[in-house]
Amino acid sequence: MNIRQKWLLAALAAALTLGAGIGTASAAKDAPLRAAYVRGGDLWIREGSVERQLTTGQRAAGPKWSFDARWIAYAAGENGRELWVRPAGEGEGHLVSRVAGDRFEWAPSLNRLAYREGNRIDWIDAERPGQPINAASGIGNFSWLPGGGGFVASSESELKPDGGWTPVRILKIPLSAQGDAARFRTLYTLPDRSDDFFAVGTSFFRWSADGRWMAFLAKPTASLSADSNTLCVLSADGSSFQQLDKMAGGEQQFAWAEGDDRLAYIAGEGREATSNKRLETADIPLGRPTIHTPAGFVDQTPAWKGDRRILVSRAREQKEWATEPAKRPFPYLVEVGLRGKRERRVTSPSSAHGDYAPVYLPASRTLAWVRSDRRSADVMIVGAGGGPARVWIRRIDLGANYYEQWNWGAVLQFYEDRRKASR
Prior knowledge:
Blueprint: H1 3-22, E1 34-39, E2 42-47, E3 50-53, E4 61-65, E5 71-76, E6 82-87, E7 94-97, E8 104-106, E9 112-117, E10 120-125, E11 133-136, E12 139-144, E13 150-155, E14 169-174, E15 185-189, E16 201-202, E17 206-207, E18 213-219, H2 222-225, E19 229-235, E20 241-247, E21 254-256, E22 262-267, E23 278-283, E24 290-291, E25 297-305, E26 309-316, E27 332-337, E28 343-345, E29 354-361, E30 366-372, E31 377-382, E32 390-396, E33 400-402, E34 405-407, E35 412-415
Antiparallel strand pairs: 1-2, 1-35, 2-3, 4-5, 5-6, 6-7, 8-9, 9-10, 10-11, 12-13, 13-14, 14-15, 16-18, 17-18, 18-19, 19-20, 21-22, 22-23, 23-24, 25-26, 26-27, 27-28, 29-30, 30-31, 31-32, 33-34
């Protein structure tokens, strides 16, 4: 049986098992909470109270659900560079690329998976297996357009003989262009290097709810990017560009409100998450930033709960970096209200644990997060009715940690059908 035949059988199996395992589209509104996660290096999924192991011995990382939860893409392999896709129901996983595991993304409304291989954007259709389609070359980073009809991407900057860098352009790339650069549109060219700005690349692009704005990090060279990047906002047509603030390198540190053109982010230079990290919000365009973190504290990983409340992981500030992990403060969760600047503490972990990466899932009105002692981790939830927190998933692998900037997306992703989420 060839690869195409295997993929077709996997697609059929995914469709047939949705009703029993992952839920049909017609029953999506009644589907229980579900997540993909990594335990012991293997990929698992949980739906309600049922767990299922999907891989064995692959060293999985970074699971991502397709828009309808029928497919999961993930990185794997010794160095985490392989890109695999598999049905969330029954069926085998299939290797998509041996070198694309560092950047891949599902389309917002189709089962198309795009990925960066070298400086190219390629994409595949999980429903119609075949050869990958090249969308563009000379690319630094990318994201799907809100409608899924193409990409927004940054051009690849190159070092010039005089020591300078070629400018970074923000491009709109339609799928119909099929790699023809003459059909790409330059939306904006990032500013030249100055005392206040330096960029040789970008992060991915995160769209506002109405698709009018994109937020991204303008990144300098790697060593500088660990400490300072510029958070930028660009309009969809490229006519309006705004620099908001300086941030560390964690791309999980900025998020749009669910229904408004309002951006939450963790401002503050320096790679250490234990100092100079404050939650700010800004209305786009040209809104004056508002600081929400009180003096003596630091925040991480903002998550919106509607359009007027934000959840963050907060800890006491530690001005000097502690080389011993045991001497670094553990965080807890706080809900910040934008009206009246009210806030309340949401969790109270033990002195030996911290609460990280809050996620609010509006369709089920569930708050979820990771509780960890830096050696092990569980996934916690509180449902719509409130009450005490409970462990929903035990023993997931640790997320990526860089100077206490924790990226739990490396081992965990929740799924909800956001089209059915209540606003």
